[in-house]
Batch of 2 targets.
Target 1
Amino acid sequence: MDSATALALTIAGGRTPIALHFSYRQRTERRERRSFDALCDFYAIKSRYTFDLGFFADIGASALTDLSIDVPQYADRAAAQGIPVTYVPFRNGIFLSIAAAVAEKESADEIVIGAVEEDSSGYPDCRERFLREMQTAIGLGVRDTTKIAINAPLIHLSKEQIVREALRLNVPLRLTWSCYQDGEKACGVCESCRLRLKGFTLANAVDPIAYFSN
Amino acid sequence: MDSATALALTIAGGRTPIALHFSYRQRTERRERRSFDALCDFYAIKSRYTFDLGFFADIGASALTDLSIDVPQYADRAAAQGIPVTYVPFRNGIFLSIAAAVAEKESADEIVIGAVEEDSSGYPDCRERFLREMQTAIGLGVRDTTKIAINAPLIHLSKEQIVREALRLNVPLRLTWSCYQDGEKACGVCESCRLRLKGFTLANAVDPIAYFSN
């Protein structure tokens, strides 16, 4: 939902996006890829990169990429402190680095990322300070003539605001996927589902995707 | 040679390294992997990660990963200006991001990289300023309790100094590979071979690896 809304904002701003998808052996790899393809088709995006980052499974250390670690339900999560087990070490750092390489090759001047800092799971690589610092690092690690900004248009939005923004932009939310579990329907009980559903409730809207329970 | 010398310095400093190897569909992928394995065996390194980054070929844009772009000979390179076609967009940024994920998982407090700023090919991602900025970005993108320094012990050394350092530390230079071409012997004429050979000459030493010509 966040990526799709960031994409819609980019297109609404008159820009021509190159779409990047990362498969990193996350539980929902196939489901997310389906959403990526469907969203790219919907927005008629011609230039697409799909990256197979199988090495994330070798690093492991996250419930999203290590199937032996259970995805916690929101109730358990709320009782816990700190960064959840769904945190994938430096995931956005790796994604942004690869995006920087693509941007330099394609002479793109902006990387758009749907990261959300507040109203999120507290992942350190979703903080605006981190994104700003990565932009500086990328600027020093590419050709001096290459200028790449990192744009995170949702960074300070709540999930409610993201839902409202998505509805305003007619984002096809039925094509998106947020659940951490790989079911035919969304589980409705993981933290990602809970944050998404709370956003729809507060925005007085109905989530068009199917849930097992909620 | 640079990685091996950085590794030897790390071990000489009393540290226990985790060795990382990146295959990124570079021309010399198999040859470099052979060197990695041999060096790890020589130094009896137990913890090793070998990452298959096949996606670099999808990005392309470099003579090292795009076989349709010829590796220039040093004579041509010297006549040219700026960053050579062997530059792989943001390569070290991607390597360092993956190393950061491993470091966070393994509770390692340092990433050691054999990057050389002077007496090198002028790649932007080998500059000390970039490495410093990446260290800051990584610090903001991982758990607040994770502290990861980037250590580039060769960054200000000339190739001559690196050869002298390697000899002082008894680095098994016969096991290393610098050539950009994938031959049974090193080509002796690409920029990487030329820089290496110049280092040996200035250090009054003989390179133990075999060359087709030099």
Note: Chain B has eight helices and four strands.
Target 2
Amino acid sequence: MRQNSSTDIDTAVPEPSQASTPRAVDRWMLSLLQRGFGTAPVGFVLWDGTQSSPPDGPTAGRLLVKDRRTLVGLLLDPELNFGEAYSSGRLDVLGDLPSLLEQTYRAWEQEGRNRRPPRRFTLRRPNTLRRARENIHHHYDIGNDFYRLWLDEQMLYTCAYFPAPGESLERAQVAKMDHVCRKLRLRPGDKVVEAGCGWGALALHMARHYGVEVKAFNISTEQIRYGRGRARAEGLEGRVEFIEDDYRTIRGRFDAFVSVGMLEHVGREKYAELREVIGRCLRRDGGRGLLHFIGRDRVRSLNPWIRRRIFPGAYPPTLRETLEAILEPGGLSVIDVENLRLHYARTLEHWQERFEGAVEQVRAMFGEPFVRAWRLYLAGSQAAFATGWMQLFQVVFAHTGDNDVAWTRDHMYGAGS
Amino acid sequence: MRQNSSTDIDTAVPEPSQASTPRAVDRWMLSLLQRGFGTAPVGFVLWDGTQSSPPDGPTAGRLLVKDRRTLVGLLLDPELNFGEAYSSGRLDVLGDLPSLLEQTYRAWEQEGRNRRPPRRFTLRRPNTLRRARENIHHHYDIGNDFYRLWLDEQMLYTCAYFPAPGESLERAQVAKMDHVCRKLRLRPGDKVVEAGCGWGALALHMARHYGVEVKAFNISTEQIRYGRGRARAEGLEGRVEFIEDDYRTIRGRFDAFVSVGMLEHVGREKYAELREVIGRCLRRDGGRGLLHFIGRDRVRSLNPWIRRRIFPGAYPPTLRETLEAILEPGGLSVIDVENLRLHYARTLEHWQERFEGAVEQVRAMFGEPFVRAWRLYLAGSQAAFATGWMQLFQVVFAHTGDNDVAWTRDHMYGAGS
């Protein structure tokens, strides 16, 4: 039954109150909050049980707002304070969090919110070498023990490639590495540079299975240490060099340039520097490049809570922005683009399941607010990819006019792939 | 041997003179012209045999400038007057035309001319419905008899897809149609709209082999008549409707939108109208779109001679421009991009060979200047694709957030492809 959102406030289902009794002003704020959620099928419950419902009913669940401070915060800056309140436990979900987020994003996408121009007054600090290091330390140096609890065995923290949707995460991450290597047409003896190598799985995979030499850059101390350990253990030190440094320090010429999951952390202000690095390090005759990154269909700021708590300095660009700032002025030619958005949604489903399976250990390590923050981040990311709020692009490129490019894509889909 | 271009002028090899004896001013103009060609390995010969060579020698051949008017014209507006002089026979090539053009483009690409900003003061008239009709009539209504002389048997006048470089043109054009149909994931019963259908080969192919219903739009009277004739002859009138009208008049909802080789003729000023057409005619749940078009890596005006004599109103956009003006603001999501530049170079090799094989008939129909203009246009186009001066993009898209997209590209490369 279709109801008017602003009048559907009643106190029929009281909840244990832990704050003051709602006053007229609270009900008025509640109606504003409900209106702000638009057609999202999400209702609200205040601390005393006062309820509010959206036009078509709260089919995705209700949000329990536990005190007045939270209600005010959600009105003033919903994008930031939803995450803050949820993590601290002042906001709860009565229903399934991933499903509630996905239905909300889908409703907002259909309303066209994704197409609204971004906020104009967001303060963004460029990622200087020092700030880049701080930002990356913030997220990636939480501790390898933490990531080992819920990533695949090779510790890949980027979108997997599922040959079929039911494939295991372990196999899908290996398939992703092969997908990338095939797109790069790696040949034994090639010199490859990897910008932002995570825990080193792709660098080691390329060296072991494709016979190439890899220089792998990363500014996360913990990740580099881990990668070096694996290289030693697997006898690949001679073929994979892990370099704890910024991508901007890359020197030399390479047959292939690859970067998986780093562009999101570069920041728009620094695309010219990345372009310069690619331009000088990629061979002009037969050099192949690949950028794998989280992107958008429309320009939009990153959610401010994600930027504050999860990924400082991050920005997912549109495909157009990467063309405008990196590929076109860099004298580079787009060979192939693939959008793997639904593969990232699937990857995040696996991560969520594993995270919840290890949640007691995570709670013991970092406490409940951390658990709730990461639960929200993983569920929100899955919802964003599942609804088209975010994209995952793989872009293959070469210098303009270089004819040493693949004739067709058949080599990527041959027997055994 | 490296020589200085401006001093390498001598009169050692006199040619039969047909104009006045060169004066000091002619030699000065010749040295300017030579300098303007930069590192292109192309020399010049004036009407009396006066020669000029580029820094590394005229390894690609020489251009014979037959009179002073042509020399002046080449200096004032080389891009326009090269074509004008060549067509009229006032300029000749001593050497192989396609190879000379290809080496010139390659040298210029390496000099970075492709990256220079475009001219600012080009007058471009928007393609109103009436002007679009005139422009298309200019090129496509020359007569089906002419195109039949050198196109494949199904009359496809767009880039073919060669599963292997040695494939025949006939088979490569069929492979192209199947490549497009697979990218669109056509299913029996689908309603498909084609914007700019040429002589109708793709529309008929889709209906016959994929069991879909097609509405095919084109404003070329001769092409539509030809397509209707084929539909009748092949018993496909009930499934393919050829509509002699502009793409802007498309109405209704379709499972697939396809346009092969039309975007180049739309003109930047009208991208918003095309976007509006796609947005309203493509189903929001499971609608698949494909744009196949000649593009660029960098913004550049179309060669003014091509625009005047061959394709009035045409403009090949960069991938960024199509994202900026059509896909991003249209609420569309890029699923797949493939660059088939080298396939177009190969297609043009076939066309040139067939054109030269039928050149006596073409000369009898239209005269020598027409033959020379088309020879230059075909050779110049081949050179442009072979050197990266032009690109051929196939872009697959859907409405943002539509999850009825292909899980992988495996369906395009299965057995039998």
Note: Chain A touches chain B through 50 residues (CB under 8 Å).
